[in-house]
From TrEMBL:
Its cofactor is Mg(2+). It comes from Parasedimentitalea denitrificans. CDD domains: ribokinase. Substrate binds at residues 9-11, 37-41, 135, 238. This is Ribokinase. Residues 5-279 form the Carbohydrate kinase PfkB domain. Activated by a monovalent cation that binds near, but not in, the active site. The most likely occupant of the site in vivo is potassium. Ion binding induces a conformational change that may alter substrate affinity. It is found in: Cytoplasm. ATP binds at residues 178, 204-209, 237-238. Its EC number is 2.7.1.15.
Length: 289
């Protein structure tokens, strides 16, 4: 199984004639609400890829719909707590040129308790996968607990936070970075991915594909991206991560898991939207590229 300590957000997308200037009051012409958050996206991707995914997270009283939707997409939601703090949300203003401005309210995502985390992870079995990102609290506690319990501890360093990354590094088996995060990490630590002491490091490079660094063999392997017409790249990285984890969860060797993830992410960028449109395994296998 896969255990995901992860964020759950409401993405509120407001269409505007232009982005608001300081002091300006502006009426939106449209509002759409989506399920979002890196954590939720990864849970949906791994569940759609066929894995049992237990999401560990928190919402407010206003987030019941988000938990229902995760359940609908096949995610095990029994370890999602309801807190007094409102559900995390992103207020996304988009103008006619598709330029955006985002206000992120972490809310309940940062209210996960040690007890809640402990209760969830003690039900994990040795060899299960734990995935962590930076949109919740409890990263270091979870990574340490995961290592002590014999879980395969995985971490996506997004959004990048040098302090959070350094606090989990000693416990990691697998690290996911995009190109920008890889540069930020190298600046923060002065080390290359090979020098971090982590068994596997994966760096995604957008339309240029992805790269796997294996510490044991010292090998670097490249996985080209599929050529598609991209219409919306949000959630590409989260889909890629969720599919890699699901592949590993189903005992695929890393190259096969990465190849599957590249197909899933390529299909994902051809679709507008995030969690709601992450493709399932059958769609990914049948995609014509
Ligand atoms: P993030 O969204 O975290 O910044 P990336 O942009 O690196 O992540 O994308 C993750 C993966 O999604 C890439 O490794 C690639 O496989 C796939 N991908 C991203 N953009 C494209 C694209 N334009 N065409 C095909 N595949 C893409």
């Amino acid at each position: 199984a896969i255990w995901n300590l992860g964020s759950i957000n409401a993405d509120m997308v407001y269409a505007l004639p232009h982005l608001p200037a300081p002091g300006e009051t502006l009426a939106a012409t449209d509002l759409q609400q989506f399920l979002g958050g890196k954590g939720a996206n990864m849970s949906v991707a791994a569940a759609r890829a066929g894995s049992h995914v237990c999401h560990i997270g928190a919402v407010g009283a206003d987030g019941v719909w988000a938990v229902d939707r995760l359940t609908e997409y096949g995610v095990d939601t029994r370890h999602i707590a309801e807190t007094d703090t409102p559900t995390g949300h992103a207020i996304i203003a988009v103008d006619r040129q598709a330029e955006n401005q985002i206000i992120l309210f972490p809310g309940a995502n940062r209210e996960i308790s040690t007890d809640q985390l402990g209760q969830a992870l003690t039900q994990a079995e040795s060899g299960d996968i734990l995935i962590i990102q930076n949109e919740t609290n409890m990263q270091a506690e979870a990574a340490k607990m995961g290592r002590d319990l014999g879980l395969r501890v995985c971490y996506a360093a997004a959004p990048f936070d040098a302090t959070a990354v350094q606090s989990v590094l000693p416990f990691l088996d697998l690290l996911f970075l995009n190109e920008v995060e890889a540069q930020q990490l190298q600046q923060a630590t002065g080390k290359t991915p090979m020098e971090l002491g982590i068994a596997d490091v994966i760096i995604t490079l957008g339309a240029k594909g992805a790269r796997h660094f294996c510490a044991e063999t010292g090998e670097i392997q490249d996985f080209p991206a599929h050529r598609v017409t991209a219409v919306d790249t949000t959630g590409a990285g989260d889909t890629f991560t969720g599919y890699v984890l699901s592949g590993l969860d189903r005992s695929l060797p890393m190259p096969q898991a990465m190849a599957l993830a590249a197909r899933a992410a390529a299909l994902m960028v051809t679709r507008p939207g995030t969690a709601d449109v992450i493709p399932d395994l059958k769609e990914v296998q049948e995609a014509s590229f």
